[in-house]
Write the structure tokens for this entry.
Amino acid sequence: MEINGAYISRNIQGPAELTALWNLSAGLKWTFFHDMAELRLKTTDLFNTWSPDMIMKYNRQHLRMNIIPDSRTVSLSFTFKFGEYNKSYKEFDSSRFGM
């Protein structure tokens, strides 16, 4: 099992103020068939909070941008190992390189 999180605090970028944003991601891995098969399930941004809102006040302009986040993902992967890797290559003659 894997759980990851991130947090970026409220910040100011020029005349704009961005709200804080955070996310929480999780994943599960199941290995079976004598460690030759692997199944992974992963989710990102479980609470859909990885987009900031922006407020800008400049002279007589007041702007508030509410972003509708769409950063959640779910993925499922399957990996199968078809046997051992055999390292079979020939050593090359390196004497011509002055080694």
Residues 37 and 80 are 4 Å apart (CA to CA). The chain has one domain: 2-80. Residues 2-80 form one domain. Strands lie at 2-8, 11-13, 16-18, 21-32, 37-44, 54-58, 61-65, 73-80.
